[in-house]
Design brief:
This protein is an alpha+beta fold. The chain is 33% helix and 27% strand.
Length: 247
């Protein structure tokens, strides 16, 4: 099974810097989106460290159990960022979200901390694979909020987990058996916080008529439309998105 991929990151309309980072390694089948914690010193450094240490760990331990590797790679990044944050008061409190896809054999191994997300489009239907580690998601889990309520919460960007913020982190890791024609999308909240899921799906289905014959140019076009969509809806945050098609 082959993979076709494309990715893009954009500063958005309101931020002075881009604290998002993306990583794409089609040869090793590793893809990552990280979103540095907005409002904290060194958010851009934290996200860039995440996309450095996570794939380095995976590649170094390539022959080990992929589920364990995915988990340990985040722990490695967390430790490195935490050490860096203690080197200067300028970096105190920095952290990042991270979501990674690691394809090996018939499966994809998904890991995430924070509110950057992984989605799947399977036979034209859209599924959110990850669950946010945010205060709003905690309220949804407890039945206090519906998803619609959460979208309007002024504190929807408050995280309860981040890479590098604490000595130990809890990481969600799971496996999905990939089908030919599956489309995977990983993104920061600059996309999913500004563009409704149904609109994201509509864009994907419009520009990717047949996943088995789609070109890289068509993938890139779809990504640019999504970026423009988020910016036209306000562009309140940095926007990063990677799309991968299994063929």
């Amino acid at each position: 099974m082959g993979l076709l991929s494309a990715g893009i990151t954009d500063i958005g309309k309101k931020r002075k810097t881009n604290q998002d980072s993306i990583y794409m390694n089609p040869e090793k089948h590793i893809f990552i989106v990280a979103d540095g914690m907005g409002g904290h010193n060194g958010g851009d450094i934290a996200s860039s460290m995440a996309i450095k240490h996570i794939p380095e760990y995976i590649i170094e331990h390539f022959d080990d159990d992929p589920l364990t590797i995915s988990l340990s790679s985040f722990k490695s990044a967390n430790e490195a960022i935490k050490v860096k944050s203690n080197t200067s008061p300028l970096f105190k409190g920095m952290g990042t979200t991270a979501v990674s896809l690691y394809f090996k054999g018939p499966n994809v191994y998904i890991a995430n901390v924070g509110d950057s997300r992984a989605y799947l489009v399977h036979k034209k239907n859209y599924f959110q694979l990850t669950k946010d580690h945010s205060l709003v998601q905690e309220k949804i889990n407890l039945g206090i909020y519906t998803r619609e309520d959460g979208a309007n919460d002024p504190n929807k960007n408050v995280l309860v987990r981040a890479v590098g913020f604490e000595d130990k982190i809890s990481i969600d890791v799971f496996t999905y058996k990939v089908c030919r024609g599956d489309i995977f999308l990983i993104c920061s909240d600059g996309l999913h916080g500004m563009v409704h899921d149904s609109d994201i799906l509509e864009v994907i289905n419009h520009y990717i008529k047949d996943p088995l014959t789609v070109t890289k140019e068509e993938l890139s076009k779809a990504l640019n439309v999504l970026i423009n969509f988020a910016n036209n809806n306000g562009g309140n945050d940095n926007i990063s998105v990677i799309m991968i098609v299994a063929r």
